[in-house]
Amino acid sequence: MTKIVQRAIAAILSTVGSLLALYIGGYWMFVRPIYWIYFYFTNGGLTLHLLFINLLKIFLSSTVLGGIWIIFDIAAGFFRGYEDFEDHD
After folding, report:
1. How far from 88 is each of 59, 65, 77, 78, CA to CA, in Å?
2. What is the pTM of this model?
3. Is the pLDDT reported for residue 79 higher than 70?
């Protein structure tokens, strides 16, 4: 596999990982729970169970975001081609 193809695969994996991390960790686990807490609070239907689950999602969102991103970054690292920077004696 040529270096251009390897770097293209690495760039695609990094981009997909970043977008997926932002979508799942940022939108599904951070923005939506804030919206649902606001929605249920204004409509009078907020229960302790809903509040706890949504606060847990908000608290864990950065961990999920970072976990998804790092998995894709490690996968992209296999294709980046850092062998140019290794010290050869």
Report:
1. 45, 37, 20, 19
2. 0.80
3. yes
